[in-house]
Amino acid sequence: MLALQSYTLDDEAFLDICRQTGRLQDLVDRLLQLNRVDEAVSESEKAGDYYLLALADIFVRHGHGSLAQRLIRDRSETSRDTRLTVWLKDYAIKQGNLPEALELSKRLFWMTPSLAEYLEIAKLANQLQCWLKLQSEMLDRLSKNKQFGLLVEIYLEEGEINLALDALEQARTAARHRWEYPYSLELLVAKAAENGYPEQAIQLYLNQINSLIACRGRRNYAEAANHLKTVRGIYKRLGRQSEWQPLVVNLRQENRMLRAFLDELNKAGL
Fold first, then answer.
1. Cβ neighbourhood burial of 265 (10 Å; 0-12, 13-18, 19+)
2. Contacts within 8 Å (CB) and 24+ apart, 227-232
């Protein structure tokens, strides 16, 4: 109804209806159309974080990007909503302000460290030709913070398999509880290590196999059998088939009471 009447209502009636019905975006949009910028800012400052992001885009659309930036920056100082910092970073990139975008990316990274944010920082820092120094500082800090799981992801992304293996071992040593160890990364590291570090790859696959067997269930047994086929392939490439057969024999013997597991080994030709 408001949309239908927006061209027939006078401005004050329109604004009054927006205030009464909580139509904050329509209110701010019309205020900016009327060049009543201070009122638009005042109304926006009352909005929650989620709605403020949408209002900031309205300010940008009306050519008031600096005001939008100020609104978001002021709010980000008292809010833990990372979307505010993301907005500021994206705006800085659009404005070509790469140094500010880099600082905001670093803030985002340390708020919620992730591979995606790390790669974003690398992209910006490379453009500013300061990545090598910054990378070293970040990796050192992650290590001191014992964020070894993320270090594993980073080293895998960069093709540093030996460092990924070291970080995984550090994660194992530092883990006080089972859930603290990044089991989900073991397979990724094992696959990446197959050619350059076959011994370590075999051990990682065996860790996964033993864990799957301990969890019981035919699906887990089938997955364990698939990993065993991978281990067999590694031994074959190394010309060490003689070491393979005793491994399977021992595994069968140790789990001789698990008929479903033995059945899955038979199905897999093991």
1. buried
2. 228/265, 228/268, 228/270, 229/268, 229/269, 229/270, 230/194, 230/205, 231/202, 231/205, 231/206, 232/270
Helix (H, G, I), strand (E, B) or coil at 113: coil
* 76 and 84 Cβ atoms separated by less than 8 Å: yes
Phi-psi region of 51 (alpha: psi -120 to 50; beta: other; left: phi over 0): alpha
Distance CA(215)–CA(100), nearest Å, equals 49
Amino acid at 103: E
pLDDT tens figures, 21-64: 889 999 999 999 999 999 999 999 999 999 999 999 999 999 99
27: alpha, beta or left? (left if phi > 0; alpha if psi -120 to 50) = alpha
**Residue 21 CB partners (closer than 8 Å, separation 6+):** 2
Give the closest residue to 54 by CA, choosing from 72, 34, 33: 72
Long-range contact pairs involving 79-84 (C-beta distance under 8 Å, separation at least 24): 79/49, 80/111, 81/49, 81/50, 82/108, 82/111, 82/112, 83/49, 83/50, 83/53, 84/49, 84/52, 84/53
Model confidence, pTM = 0.84
Is residue 136 within 8 Å of residue 121, measured between CB atoms?
A: no
